[in-house]
């Protein structure tokens, strides 16, 4: 009792016989018992073992923090409230508190999180490097085009691809399964497959490119149905592929669950080319599926707009509903006289105001271009 009164920060005392710990006395239990009538007269001269826990948690100082954590969970709350005894080769070495253990665990978790975040941040460098060639190509062929790529997390599942040719240019905007690291892995796989398909087929048939990408992704992810086998995953992507023939001023478009929107110079509303409901690479996507090829002749000054669903599905506003495609298109029409860069910034600001305190739902990619 004198020790506890002198050390108000001490929650427990170890009972040691020789150099071997045999029990643990909890401060609150002892002082509570001794405050009862006649307890001091009855127990003052008796051994302290009358108040000790005869089965405290005893651990060797060589035990890892991970093993100690599991051991503490097995013992229960007692180890956290009373603390535990630390030994060295069976001899008493000292006491440790549950708060010290929690602090050590938190420090270890923080270090693991730092390592994970460093890895993810470097993965972001790799992913952005993968996209840089397309961004540079877009800047050279359409200097006034607007492009926004915003992963929900540090890395994401959206990607784009642009390439310039002597008679036109090719563009692709895609939304892969997942966010963060899984989504980023999918973008690497899908982007490499698209590059391979462009080398073999060329850029002028977006529908054929979608079909080739579908077959390749299904094969790489083991999503091709075979007798007696189960698919290894159910991942894929939604995509909009388009080729613009600059000589004929003709747009070729094929989409998998992503639409392309066209605003002609003299029109007061967008013309939407809807993507088909068949996704690319999923288990349910037919291996031999052929996407339709849409062809549209466009007058000079027409505006193209494509976005992934991170824009239109974002929850917000007074009623906590989706931002919607209609709201995005109306904003663009209302600001069509401004530069595409200004429209991009304004649309992002409108989305942020709509989102308010709601959590970000998805990765987002936006593409605007005058043709």
Can you summarize this structure?
The protein is α+β, with helices and mostly antiparallel strands. The chain is 39% helix and 25% strand. It folds into 2 domains: 1-96, CBS-domain, CATH 3.10.580.10; 123-370, PPM-type phosphatase domain (Phosphatase 2c, domain 1, 4-Layer Sandwich), CATH 3.60.40.10.
Q: What do you see in this structure?
A:
Strand 15 and strand 16 (321-322) form a beta hairpin. Helix 6 packs parallel to helix 7 (180-201) and helix 7 (180-201) packs across helix 8. This protein is of the alpha+beta class. Helices cover 39% and strands 25% of the residues. It has helices at 2-6, 27-34, 39-43, 65-75, 77-82, 98-141, 180-201, 206-220, 309-312, 325-334, 340-355, and strands at residues 12-17, 20-26, 58-60, 84-88, 91-96, 146-150, 158-165, 168-176, 237-245, 250-256, 260-263, 271-273, 294-297, 303-307, 315-316, 321-322, 364-370. The mean pLDDT is 90.
């Amino acid at each position: 009792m004198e020790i506890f009164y002198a050390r108000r920060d001490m929650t427990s005392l170890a009972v040691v016989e020789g150099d071997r710990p045999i029990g643990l006395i909890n401060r609150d239990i002892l002082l509570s018992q001794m405050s009862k009538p006649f307890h001091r007269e009855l127990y003052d001269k008796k051994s302290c073992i009358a108040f000790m826990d005869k089965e405290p948690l005893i651990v060797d100082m060589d035990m890892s923090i991970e093993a100690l954590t599991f051991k503490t969970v097995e013992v229960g709350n007692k180890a956290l409230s009373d603390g535990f005894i630390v030994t060295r080769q069976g001899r008493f070495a000292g006491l440790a508190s549950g708060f010290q253990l929690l602090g050590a665990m938190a420090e270890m978790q923080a270090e693991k999180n730092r390592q994970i975040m460093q890895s993810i941040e470097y993965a972001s460098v790799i992913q952005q490097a993968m996209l840089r060639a397309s961004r540079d190509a877009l800047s050279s062929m359409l200097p006034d085009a607007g492009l926004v790529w915003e992963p929900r997390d540090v890395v994401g599942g959206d990607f784009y691809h642009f390439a310039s040719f002597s008679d036109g240019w090719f563009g692709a905007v895609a939304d892969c399964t997942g966010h963060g690291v899984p989504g980023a892995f999918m973008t690497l796989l899908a982007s490499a497959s698209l590059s391979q398909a462009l080398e073999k087929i060329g850029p002028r048939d977006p529908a054929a490119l979608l079909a080739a990408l579908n077959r390749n992704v299904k094969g790489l992810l083991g999503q091709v149905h075979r007798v007696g086998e189960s698919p290894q995953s159910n991942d894929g992507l939604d995509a909009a592929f388009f080729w613009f023939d600059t000589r004929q001023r003709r747009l070729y478009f094929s989409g998998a669950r992503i639409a392309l929107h066209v605003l002609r110079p003299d029109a007061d509303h967008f013309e939407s080319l809807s993507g088909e409901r068949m996704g690319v690479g999923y288990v349910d996507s037919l291996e031999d599926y052929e996407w339709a090829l849409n062809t549209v002749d466009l007058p000079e000054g027409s505006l193209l707009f494509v976005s992934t669903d991170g824009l239109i599905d974002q929850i917000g506003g007074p009623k906590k509903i989706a931002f919607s495609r209609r709201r995005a298109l109306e904003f663009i029409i209302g600001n069509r006289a401004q530069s595409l860069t200004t429209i991009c910034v304004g649309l992002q600001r409108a989305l942020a105001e709509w989102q308010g305190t709601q959590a970000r739902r998805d990765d987002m990619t936006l593409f605007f271009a005058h043709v």
